Amino acid sequence: MAVVAAAAMLHPRAWTPVVSYGGELASSLTSSPVRVLMAAVILCAGAVAVLRRARRLRDVYLVDYGCFLGEPQHRVPTATATEHARLMPYLVDGESLDFMLRLHERSGIGEETSIPDSLRYMPPDRGVAASCAEAELVIFAAVDSALARAAPALPRGAADIDALVVACSFTTLAPEFADLVVNRYGLRADVRTVNLSGMGCSGALICVGLAKNLLQVAPPGTRALVVTTELLSSMFYPGTKREMLVPNVLFRMGAAAIVMSNSPERARFRIGHVVRTLTAARDRDYRCAFQEEDDQGVTGINLSKELPAAAARALQENLLAFAPAVLPASELLRVAFSSLRRKFLGEAAKRYRPAFGRAFQHFCIHPGGSRVLNEVQRGLGLSDGDMEASRMTLHRFGNMSGSSLLYELAYIEAKGRMKKGDRVCMIGFSPGIDCSSVVCECIRPAARPDDGPWAGCIHRYPVPWNL
After folding, report:
1. Cα distance from N-terminal residue to C-terminal residue, the chain
2. Residue 170: which of 137, 131, 209, 208 has the closest Cα?
3. Domain Chalcone/stilbene synthase C-terminal spans what residues (predicted)?
4. What's the sign of the alpha-carbon dihedral 232, 234, 236, 242?
5. Angle 326-329-332 from CA coordinates, rounded to 5°
6. How far apart are the C-alpha atoms of 237 and 246, rounded to whole Å?
7. Would strands 192-196 and 163-168 be described as parallel, antiparallel, or unpaired?
8. pLDDT for 135-190, tens place per residue?
9. Is 368 left (phi over 0), alpha (psi -120 to 50) or beta?
10. pLDDT at 91
């Protein structure tokens, strides 16, 4: 009965029939030894099934991942970007150009970021062919890297992929990008595919959450491939409205692919809690990052001045749901005691800020810009060391939307800092406002941590940061 009671606590619905018909069951048990044995067998089988299901639902793994790495011809140093901007026909007023240059100086972006060939034309090529060429370049490179790194867990290569999730926010083509991957790698005809758009810089974490849900209810040994990117060719804004010029300065070319499984075989990380908070019900949050046309009818992404404040509110709400599941009991007690003090003493009592550094060894915060990273650091009470991976990713690669978080994870590993048992906290933001967080626990450090996107340059980092 102790086993049955444990099963009931894990899955209350499984215990309901036993409770409802407890009287009839007790009567039957006293009438025949055979029925006693049958009842015991049924109860034990049910308990085992519930326990197995509970275990299967909480065990999803990241097998390995890969990132796109631009070639030298894709680099866009500040001097090149400035020269091209001065030659752009739509920046004739000078004020817009000065604004972009000042923004770039404060952005934290370095000299080795990458852009597609389509943006080197004047004016830039925003056509379908340019978007397709960029998609094939970055997506195929990321998937090739992920499949190569996960090869020991994929005996048949891409044919072992059972589900595919692809996210690209501002470009949707037909056939969709999921079909592009299926065609390129010859995935099976019964592969389950999902193609997401509009998810913004939280796209990777949203995809991980979706893939986790799929794997939790799939047969053991099921594998999923997650791909996330953002195409600059189609999202480039050839206008002069300042709020819509910001993405032109911050965003750069990149993509990442992740192989996930519900089997621990050869896996490198265990996927823990996934929490997503959406504040789009508030109008001011909903409108602070919006794709629209300017006064001249040119389409772009309008980033409102309210965006940092809206992101801070979304992060606060996300942490309220996230913290109880990840913070140690000592921190939760301190938070509870602080809340009681404020309840009885009023606003004069100092609010206790949870020490998230005690729950995680590493942090990957979306590098939306130096201001965003500074605000998150203050909000979470993180050290400069906690923010190093995020800031160095912004410097080396720029804002690559959702895929940026995998470059940050690669930075931590390239530095040799990832140890077995370490926990990683990933946080991303998207228009909406959407704040997503994912916890990963390392179960097997990388055999060759220096073979990712930081190969050849990790020895030069970290660089000074004073923004």
Report:
1. 62
2. 131
3. 363-442
4. negative
5. 80
6. 9
7. parallel
8. 999 999 999 999 999 999 999 999 999 999 999 988 888 889 999 999 999 999 99
9. alpha
10. 78
Q: Which residue has the tokens 């009818």?
A: 297
CB atoms within 10 A of CB 219: 10
Among all chains, which residue has been given the structure tokens 């509970």? 54
| Per-residue confidence (pLDDT) for residue 11, from 0 to 100 | 36
Q: Scanning the structure block, which residue is given the tokens 């390239």? A: 414
**What is the C-alpha separation between 314 and 338, in angstroms, rounded?**
22
Nearest-angstrom CA–CA distance, 375 and 307: 12
Q: What is the C-alpha separation between 316 and 290, in angstroms, rounded?
A: 22
How many Å apart are CA 197 and CA 177, to the nearest integer? 10
Tokens 């015991």, residue located: 40
Q: What share of the chain is helix, strand, coil (3-state, %, to 5)?
A: 50, 15, 30
Q: Give the separation between CA 197 and CA 392, rounded to whole angstroms.
A: 27
Torsions phi, psi for 153 (to 5 deg): -95, 0
**Full-model pTM:** 0.85
Residue with token string 């990380």: 269
Give the mean pLDDT of 346-356.
Answer: 70
